[in-house]
Specification:
two-stranded antiparallel sheet, mainly alpha, single chain, 49% helix, YjbJ_sf, CsbD
Length: 63
């Protein structure tokens, strides 16, 4: 994944929305370090089986 992803909005708010939508994700899955959006996207995708494009569209903005 070699894209420039940026999270949309405040991470704490987004984290709540992601946990609400994908209840199977753990806090460890959602550990976020600035600049590692691709890794976060990969973890969400792996745990949920959701399409990469759908996750990007909802929680990330591509630059």
């Amino acid at each position: 994944m070699a894209s420039n992803l940026k999270l949309k909005g405040n991470w704490n708010i987004l984290k709540g929305k992601i946990k609400e939508k994908y209840g199977d994700l753990t806090d460890d899955d959602l550990t976020y370090v600035e600049g590692q959006e691709d890794q976060l996207l990969g973890r969400i995708q792996k745990r949920t089986g959701e399409a990469e494009d759908a996750i990007k569209k909802e929680f990330f903005e591509e630059n």
